[in-house]
Amino acid sequence: MENKKIIIIGSGIAGMSMGCYLQMNGYETVIYEKGYSSGGLCTGWKRGEYYFEGCITWLMGSDSKNEFYEYWKELNVIQNMNFINDDDFAVIKLKDGSEFTLYSDVDKLEKEFIRVAPEDKEKILSLTDSIREVSTAQLNSDNAKSVNYKKVITKWCKITIEEFAKGFKSEFVRKNFKRIFWFKYDNTIVNFIVTMAWHNIKVAGYPVEGSRRFSDIIEERYINLGGKIYYNSEVSEILVKNDVAVGAKLKNGKTDNGDLIVSAADGYNTIFQMLKGKYVDDGIKYCYENLKTNQPKVYIGLGVSKKLDEFPHYMSLELSEPIKTYANESIDNIFVKIYNKNQYFSPEGKTSVVVYNNTNYEYWEELRKSSSKKYNDEKLRIASEVIDALDKYIEGIKSNIEVVDVSTPCTIERYTNNRNGSWMGWSKEIECIKNEKNLKRTLPGLDGFYMIGHWVGVGGGLPTVVLQARNLVQVICKNDEKVFTTTRL
Ligand SMILES: Cc1cc2nc3c(=O)[nH]c(=O)nc-3n(C[C@H](O)[C@H](O)[C@H](O)COP(=O)(O)OP(=O)(O)OC[C@H]3O[C@@H](n4cnc5c(N)ncnc54)[C@H](O)[C@@H]3O)c2cc1C
User: Fold this and answer.
1) Pocket around ligand 1: residues whose beta carbon is below 6 Å from it?
2) φ and ψ at 466, to 5 degrees?
3) Nearest to 424 by CA among 238, 261, 184
4) Residue 36: phi, psi to the nearest 5?
5) What is the pTM assigned to this prediction?
6) Which of 168, 214, 368, 485 is most buried per CB count within 10 Å?
7) Which atom of ligand 1 is nearest the CA belonging to 297?
């Protein structure tokens, strides 16, 4: 029997890993990508002499103590990249001069919390014990450690970060928890526990070579396995015959047929545009009409003509004067990443810095539609205010800035189609988690079609989308009575 041909829409990490695993198992695949390069959101870009990192803050599985390590190895990532694990995951600096260090090591973190909130010792110990429990869990087994992990998740999953923070007696922690851990306040506190557990055992580093290189490596793996990617090839329609997906039509009018079609593109674009909303049920409609997408950000890349080795990599800074960001909202905190250990990001003696803050998609979209001048002026205004604020913490930075690069949620949407400029699919809030069951990889009434990527589930992130792809290839192999393999070169 001839090998099945499978069309994949989108060359993000979901689409490319799907392609890799299918090629390893003898399928013929082709990827159509709307952009001019692969990686989707997992990227970074050069501006002059500087590289601005656009993605990975932590990669779960960067070390062999985590099961995702093996998957990254299958995709050639581990063999070709180096990862940094900082002792201080982040340093939080407040306008009154005080500081809190979010230590990666749980014992140090526990001491730091008790230092600022001795009256909350019991609560702190319950938190740090949970971090320890999750640190030793093995998710892919049913042993006692994994059972304990499930118990921890069940204990905390219904508590939001806001509720958790409010439960402290210490005013310092109540007021500043949103700066200490900056996920949205309506997200569950489990996000904090799991994140700190990964950092405690150093299994979630960030790549020395950056996210752009990370995506290039997976692309090389795919092409070496015989896969084909076509760029500047946006799919406008998924072709369907008798309720079976049979091909893809590109914006330029070209069509291609396949035995299976897998969309690894934006969920809304796939379901309501490429498939014209014909294959939905009430659950799917509810999600796309009601659930919030991940809160977008404004990213400001700064090329600084001096070394900043004395500063931590990651800082959360309280502003002395709030900055007006959108509509009538203002922000009183910014997040700064100083790439002082990534030698490829800037020339000798210089530093690449990225600053980001939360924003609102509609605000930027309206501005962009009303006038490109207004949109660009607003980008420059925000950048200039952020630079002034930063200068108070990093003296002299302002006079050493050589390059400024600002991206908004509209930039993300324009490059990748991700709805509302979301950078991780759905928001991780409890309402989304409750409805996750409606976000499946198949659509009601449609055969020959699958969806993968960070819109198929809540949580997103690189490991999740690779796992989805790998699991789906196992299902496809099983349906075709093939033994799944990851070793074909
Ligand atoms: C700033 C930032 C920081 C992040 N930090 C981390 C982190 O530290 N750790 C982590 O694990 N994750 C992180 N993430 C999240 C992670 O990058 C995403 O969850 C993941 O990359 C999603 O992959 P994906 O393949 O599902 O989607 P995408 O990356 O969005 O890929 C979809 C692809 O499909 C293409 N496409 C869309 N529509 C069409 C169409 N109609 N036709 C053809 N092609 C189409 C797009 O151009 C894109 O290339 C971060 C993301 C951002 C932006």
Assistant:
1) 9-15, 32-35, 40-42, 54-59, 234-235, 264-266, 269, 416-418, 423-424, 453-454, 460-463, 465
2) -70, -40
3) 184
4) -100, 0
5) 0.95
6) 214
7) 1
